[in-house]
Specification:
By secondary structure, the chain is α/β, with parallel strands linked by helices. The protein has helices at residues 79-90, 121-134, 166-175, 191-200, 212-229, 260-266, 275-281, 286-300, 314-326, 356-368, 380-387, 393-397, 442-447, 450-461; strands spanning 2-5, 9-13, 18-22, 28-31, 47-51, 53-54, 75-76, 92-98, 103-107, 139-146, 152-156, 179-184, 203-207, 232-236, 270-274, 302-309, 333-340, 373-375, 409-412, 417-419, 434-435. It has five domains: 1-39, no CATH class; 43-91 and 147-180 and 405-473, Alpha-Beta Barrel (TIM Barrel), CATH 3.20.20; 92-146; 185-231 and 291-404, pyruvate-formate lyase- activating enzyme; 233-290, no CATH class. Bound molecules: iron/sulfur cluster (SF4). Iron/sulfur cluster binds at residues 342, 377-378, 403, 405, 420-421, 423-424, 466, 468-469. The site of iron/sulfur cluster has 12 residues, from loops.
Length: 473
């Protein structure tokens, strides 16, 4: 397997498994032998769902499969535990290149003195450089990089305020080019949290609960902070059609570097400008400004709504879709993502899955009104069902990724234990997880552990339909 990497992209090449990953946006494309082939699984996880706080939540939502509640006991993963897990998954490697051409390479581990205080990748590089120079070595370069495939971490939180190291962890991952994202209930989003999120994350999902106004406010705050942080844009002036690549406009952000290949394509037909000045100079109307800002946000930062697709909230889903068309706070929203209701724990049997007819109605409405709509991977079978009679069903099918647990992704709870996904935890044979925190070698002890391999096989034999829950009724 070959990994080619620059500041913007990471390309993995091998005979049956190939990926391209945009480090800024988190956009990820996977192929097998050819682009059309879909590999069955990856040799290491691409995505990790890491829970860093659990037990307590102020909302006590009736459908919470975690059964977190305001009376629950909070448990936080520590920053050190997170670092240990992160480097095991990412297979972080240190390469020291000396001036005489000698190269030394080794795994990054907790025995380095800087382990306790390193807050980002450069801390490790600076520490090693200083130490080796003091010892009399002539160091030319120190590279710290990931040999693994981890590209994204979905942080599982109770709220952004419970784990004091939450943002530190996201910052740490980002410094190693692993893009963080998380889901928040949106009921208490502050400007500060919105600013840090817009600065660090590739995406943020906001749950729609009964008080949807607060969730709408959260979208507005995230959008505003993202725009404030990304005032520098590049406008491409050309009649040529670059729509296959992007829109007519190529937006250049704060610290972006256009690759030379792209710069050449634009043939110098562009200029850089501060967004506020662009709006002023072009006398954009309020509606035009909203459209421009919305497009900029959606291009680089995915803000989604998460709604649990239960029958008794069908009206709420429809209303939210109508609001997306009219409520200016939602101009930066990318999509409404429907999550399958999991009949888990004390929730089992309490709620009804959204009917197929209602899925269909939602999908048709979204398509007619050009509203972004998405589904979690547990919903892929129902999504396939609702598009099967459509003319463009083949291209739509490519948008659906059925369950990927243990195939491409891994879940780790706040105690550092893995199970195939967060819903499988404490269910069936997963009442006990496999410790990532204590494992010696992640690939052999966890990713290729017999229990994980059995689950993977079951999932593949089941055509990637959920092997744990009945999600149809
Ligand atoms: S195992 Fe089932 S519940 Fe877990 S992600 Fe897959 S489909 Fe969803």
């Amino acid at each position: 397997m070959k990994i080619l990497e620059n500041k913007v992209r990471r390309i993995v090449k091998s005979e049956n498994y190939n990926t391209i990953f945009d480090k800024k946006t988190g956009v990820f494309v996977r192929g097998g032998k050819t682009v059309k082939d879909d590999p069955k699984c990856s040799p290491m996880p691409e995505i990790a769902d890491i829970e860093i706080s659990s037990g307590k939540c102020h909302n006590s939502c009736k459908f919470c499969y975690k059964q977190n509640s305001s009376e629950g006991k909070l448990h936080n993963m520590t920053f050190e535990e997170f670092k240990t897990i992160f480097h095991k998954l990412a297979l972080t490697t240190v390469k020291v290149i000396y001036e005489d051409g000698t190269v030394k390479e080794g795994e990054y581990n907790t025995s380095f003195d800087c382990w306790d205080y390193a807050l980002m990748k450069s801390d490790i590089q600076n520490y090693l450089n200083e130490k080796l120079t003091k010892m009399g070595f002539k160091v030319k370069n120190i590279l710290v990089y990931n040999k693994g495939l981890l590209s994204q971490i979905a942080f599982g939180i109770t709220s952004p305020y419970d784990n004091p190291d939450f943002f530190k962890m996201m910052e740490y991952a980002r410094s190693f080019d692993v893009i963080p994202n998380y889901t928040i209930n949106g009921q208490d989003m502050t400007d500060k949290v919105a600013e840090r999120t817009a600065n660090l994350c590739g995406a943020c999902a906001i749950s729609i609960l009964s008080n949807k106004e607060k969730s709408y406010d959260a979208v507005e705050k995230l959008s505003k902070q993202f725009i404030d942080l990304n005032q520098k844009i590049r406008i491409v002036q050309t009649d040529k059609d670059y729509s296959w690549l992007t829109t007519q406009y190529w937006f250049k952000f704060k610290d972006d570097i256009l690759s030379t290949e792209l710069e050449g394509m634009f043939e110098g037909d562009y200029f850089d400008i501060v967004l506020k000045d662009y709006i002023e100079q072009n006398n954009l109307t309020e509606d035009e400004t909203d459209e421009l800002l919305g497009n900029i946000i959606k291009k680089r930062f995915k803000i989604n709504f998460h709604i649990v697709a239960m029958e008794d909230i069908f009206d709420l889903i429809m209303q939210t879709m109508k609001d997306v068309k009219t409520d200016k706070r939602l101009k930066g929203l990318t999509a409404i993502v429907l999550l399958k209701y999991k009949p888990k724990g004390t929730n089992a049997g309490k709620f009804k899955q959204l009917s197929k007819e209602h899925y269909q109605e939602i999908f048709d409405y979204a398509e007619e009104n050009k509203i972004g709509i998405g589904f979690d991977s547990c919903s892929a079978p129902v999504f396939m069902e609702s598009i099967k009679n459509k003319e463009n069903s083949e291209s739509l099918e490519m948008l659906a990724e059925p369950c990927e647990s243990t195939l491409f992704s891994i879940y780790i709870n706040s105690y550092g234990e893995t199970s195939p996904c967060s819903f499988c935890e404490n269910e069936g044979e997963w009442t006990e997880g496999i410790s990532v925190l204590k494992c010696h070698d992640f690939i052999s002890d966890v990713w290729n552990n017999e229990r994980i391999k059995n689950f993977r096989e079951k999932l593949l034999n089941n055509d990637r339909h959920c092997p744990m829950f009945n999600l149809e009724d």
